[in-house]
């Protein structure tokens, strides 16, 4: 299977089930709580590792109990921690994640050690034999982590390694200027429809197709777009391919976008057509929302392939799957 390098946040999530959100200054009594490993790039790395890929995660934790727990959990899962530093001054990032009755998550975070990842931590050896480099958009929020991200992209480019970027919901406006400068260096960006206009540098009323054309003209080669209701699409200069969402019961949306990214990455390194990349990404996201939290709850490939089989019986041909199909 492929060697995949990832850069982004590593954190511990305190997840609280909140039946009703209070007004500011009020109180809400949670019906359940969980401590879980989290972080956008971390979640994607776990899903990819469970699909059989050799994942190398670049990041930073604190010299604290949470950091040791994160490193231990990642090692147990099989994600390489050789390029994860430990900060003597900043704590491991902790997220407070509230989950409403409908399963939608809301997050509050102190970025801690993650934001202090230095460009000096990005070494060429991490990219040896890598098939793809994946970057979480959170890493572009502030320096020096954003400088480390730029350095990693440079090293990937020098080796001819395709770069994918996931833009999590809510940060598009903050990272848009940085992302626009990176577009010629990117193979694929993944984002939601609501974040398309800010990224393209246009007003909120710009038609989707026009925003897509603008981004492609600026140099990115593939745009994986999550539509609001119909499904997702993969746009390239050669055209657009799509796949519908899967019908599942939503328990918790935490990590769904990270799982979606893992599906597209697997499709990309497997050489799947665009429609099958979308189908795989949609299925990864669908399985993710049926369980509580992210981290060690991220989907396994066998679960995803089973959902696809149940959904339409047309499984993508992914090497290493226990339901592998031969491709012509």
What does this structure look like?
- 32% of the residues lie in helices and 23% in strands.
- It is α/β, with parallel strands linked by helices and 328 residues long.
- The strands form two sheets. Strands 5-4-1-8-9-10-11-12-13 form a nine-stranded mixed sheet, sandwiched between helices. It has a four-stranded mixed sheet with strand order 3-2-6-7.
What is the strand content?
A: 15-25%
Oligomeric category: single chain
Shape: globular
N/C terminus separation = 19 Å
What's the arrangement of strands in the largest beta sheet?
5-4-1-8-9-10-11-12-13
Low-pLDDT residue intervals, each spanning 5 or more residues: 322-328
Question: What structural category arises from helix and sheet content?
Answer: alpha/beta
The total of beta strands comes to 13
**What's the SSE pattern?**
EEEHEHEEEEHEHEHHEEEHHH
* Rg (C-alpha, Å): 19 Å
Task: Please describe the biggest sheet, giving its number of strands, its sense, and whether it closes into a barrel.
Answer: 9 strands, mixed
| DSSP summary: helix tally | 9
What percentage of residues falls in helices of 4 or more residues?
A: 25-40%
Mean pLDDT: 91
Q: How are the secondary structure elements laid out?
A:
Elements: E1 3-7, E2 11-17, E3 32-38, H1 40-50, E4 54-62, H2 65-77, E5 84-87, E6 93-99, E7 105-110, E8 132-136, H3 145-158, E9 163-166, H4 172-182, E10 188-192, H5 196-200, H6 208-217, E11 222-226, E12 231-236, E13 239-244, H7 256-270, H8 274-288, H9 301-312
Parallel strand pairs: 1-4, 1-8, 2-6, 4-5, 8-9, 9-10, 10-11
Antiparallel strand pairs: 2-3, 6-7, 11-12, 12-13
Helix pairs in contact: 1-7, 7-8, 8-9
């Amino acid at each position: 299977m492929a060697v995949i390098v990832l850069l982004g946040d590593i954190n511990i999530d305190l997840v609280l089930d909140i039946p009703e959100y209070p007004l500011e200054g009020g109180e809400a009594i949670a019906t359940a709580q969980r401590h879980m490993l989290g972080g956008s790039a971390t979640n994607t790395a776990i899903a990819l590792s469970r699909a059989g890929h050799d994942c190398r995660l670049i990041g930073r934790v604190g010299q604290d109990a949470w950091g040791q727990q994160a490193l231990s959990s990642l090692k147990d899962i099989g994600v390489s921690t050789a390029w994860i530093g430990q900060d003597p001054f900043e704590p491991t990032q902790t997220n407070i994640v509230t989950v409403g009755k409908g399963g939608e998550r809301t997050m509050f975070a102190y970025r801690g050690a993650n934001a202090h990842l230095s460009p000096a931590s990005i070494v060429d050896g991490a990219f040896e034999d890598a098939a793809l480099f994946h970057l979480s958009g959170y890493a572009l929020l502030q320096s020096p982590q954003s400088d480390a991200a730029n350095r990693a992209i440079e090293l990937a480019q020098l080796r001819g390694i395709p770069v994918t970027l996931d833009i999590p919901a809510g940060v598009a406006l903050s990272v848009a200027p940085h992302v626009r400068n990176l577009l010629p260096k990117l193979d694929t960006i993944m984002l939601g429809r609501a974040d398309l206009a800010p990224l393209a540098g246009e007003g909120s009323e710009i038609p989707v197709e026009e925003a897509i054309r603008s981004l492609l003209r600026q140099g990115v080669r593939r745009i994986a777009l999550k539509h609001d209701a119909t499904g997702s699409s993969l746009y390239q200069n050669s055209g657009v391919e799509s796949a519908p969402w899967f019908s599942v019961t939503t328990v918790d949306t935490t990590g769904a976008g990270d799982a979606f990214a893992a599906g597209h990455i697997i499709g990309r390194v497997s050489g799947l057509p665009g429609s099958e990349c979308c189908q795989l990404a949609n299925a990864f996201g669908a399985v993710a929302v049926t369980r509580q939290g992210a981290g060690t709850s991220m989907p396994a490939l066998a679960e995803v392939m089973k959902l696809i089989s149940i959904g339409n019986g047309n499984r993508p041909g992914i090497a290493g799957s226990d339901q592998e199909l031969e491709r012509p």
